[in-house]
């Protein structure tokens, strides 16, 4: 046996694991529009408990009073009360395909009429807008230490790029991102079908265009067609959470889909790639993703490009699904 050829891959694996363990991560979500956001944040809480990541903040790009209350509820339930919440900059309502589960779960009560799930924040009016919280956190972070995972709209990210110097940093938003962020991982667009108008893109086309045009770090995108190939099974929601009487993610799933069904794992794939990619995904060559005025996404290979998109083989899709079920059904 050649010891060097055995040890080198092991050392590289250990180095990769240590780098991931120190990974600062900010999560951008339109929590409430689809239930895959809720399953995705469950994974992030698990990773945080495993010390795989340090979850710096949850940034909302979903409007309304209930999304921040819902995140506070989850932070409390998962024992992560100190994770800050950034408020949405959205000024118009986004389309919800099913029930707004954030409101349903926040308003759930027990037999005596008391809230079913505890919360920790006393005054939600004191929460910072996402752009200001970004600047506060990034200014304190080590250079190149932050991964941003965006599974909703691009509104907050585009506005962050436009910010100027403030009490947190003398840098502009673009300069601050370039200095502190290592990469952006998104769930957005449809690469296989260049005429498809994907939900996260069309809810704020100008912002999405700006981010893909001006974001100064590499962008890794999990497109619509990837998550569509991997559906979280209804049987798991119905049968695999017997270790607790009440679970906010299960309740969210049932509120959003009164008739439980297998559901695509769009946002989960972006989280998985950001934290634990292993060999689950195939990464495209470097290129450039552009967003049309109609909200379609086009990829073109480009040697010096900073954009990449993910895809999976049938075998990779099966292994990812097994991973999701094991991770999400695990008691935190």
Question: What's the topology here?
Answer:
Elements: H1 3-21, E1 23-29, H2 36-49, E2 53-60, H3 66-77, E3 85-86, H4 101-106, H5 130-140, E4 146-150, H6 155-162, H7 173-180, E5 181-187, H8 199-202, H9 205-214, E6 219-222, H10 224-228, E7 231-232, H11 234-239, H12 248-256, E8 263-264, H13 266-275, E9 282-283, E10 287-291, E11 297-301, E12 307-311, H14 314-328
Parallel strand pairs: 1-2, 1-4, 2-3, 4-5, 5-6, 6-12
Antiparallel strand pairs: 7-8, 9-12, 10-11
Helix pairs in contact: 2-13, 5-6, 6-7, 6-9
Condensed summary:
The protein has 332 residues and is an alpha/beta fold. The protein has helices at 3-21, 36-49, 66-77, 101-106, 130-140, 155-162, 173-180, 199-202, 205-214, 224-228, 234-239, 248-256, 266-275, 314-328, and strands spanning 23-29, 53-60, 85-86, 146-150, 181-187, 219-222, 231-232, 263-264, 282-283, 287-291, 297-301, 307-311.
What class, by secondary structure content?
alpha/beta
* Major β-sheet annotation: 8 strands, mixed
Low-confidence stretches: 1-22
The total strand number stands at: 12
How large is the count of helical segments? 14
Helix content percent band: 40-55%
Tell me the CATH superfamily: Ribonucleoside hydrolase-like
State the assembly state of the protein chains: single chain
* β-sheet strand percentage: 15-25%
Please identify the top-level CATH class: Alpha Beta
Number of domains: 1
Q: Could you say what the CATH topology is called?
A: Inosine-uridine Nucleoside N-ribohydrolase, Chain A
Strand order of the largest sheet: 3-2-1-4-5-6-12-9
CATH architecture: Alpha-Beta Complex
Instruction: Write down the overall geometry.
Output: globular
């Amino acid at each position: 046996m050649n010891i060097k050829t055995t040890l080198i891959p092991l050392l590289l694996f250990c180095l990769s694991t240590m780098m991931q363990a120190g990974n600062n991560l900010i999560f951008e979500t339109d929590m409430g529009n689809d239930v895959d956001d809720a399953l995705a944040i469950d994974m992030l809480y698990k990773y945080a408990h495993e010390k795989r990541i340090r979850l710096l903040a949850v940034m909302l790009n979903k409007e309304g009073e209930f999304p921040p209350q819902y995140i506070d509820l989850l932070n409390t339930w998962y024992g992560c009360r100190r994770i800050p919440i950034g408020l949405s900059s959205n000024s118009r309502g986004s389309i919800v395909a099913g029930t707004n589960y954030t409101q349903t779960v926040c308003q759930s009560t027990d037999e005596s009429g008391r809230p079913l799930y505890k919360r920790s924040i006393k005054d939600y009016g004191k929460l910072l807008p996402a752009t200001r919280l970004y600047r506060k956190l990034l200014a304190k972070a080590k250079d190149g230490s932050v991964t941003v995972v965006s599974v909703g709209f691009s509104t907050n990210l585009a506005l962050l790029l436009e910010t100027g110097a403030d009490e947190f940093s003398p840098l502009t938003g673009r300069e601050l991102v370039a200095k502190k962020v290592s990469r952006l991982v998104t769930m957005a667009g449809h690469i296989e079908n260049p005429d498809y108008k994907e939900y996260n893109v069309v809810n704020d086309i100008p912002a999405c265009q700006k981010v893909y045009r001006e974001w100064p770090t590499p962008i890794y995108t999990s497109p619509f067609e990837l998550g569509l190939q991997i559906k979280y099974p209804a049987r798991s929601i119905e049968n695999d959470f017997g270790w607790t009487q009440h679970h906010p993610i299960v309740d969210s799933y049932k509120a959003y889909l009164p008739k439980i069904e297998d559901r695509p794992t769009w946002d989960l794939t972006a989280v998985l790639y950001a934290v634990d990619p292993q060999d689950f995904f195939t990464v495209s060559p470097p290129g450039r993703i552009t967003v049309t005025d109609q909200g379609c996404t086009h990829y073109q290979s480009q040697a010096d490009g900073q954009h990449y998109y993910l895809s999976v083989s049938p075998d990779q899709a099966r292994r990812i699904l097994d991973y999701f079920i094991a991770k999400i059904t695990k008691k935190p």
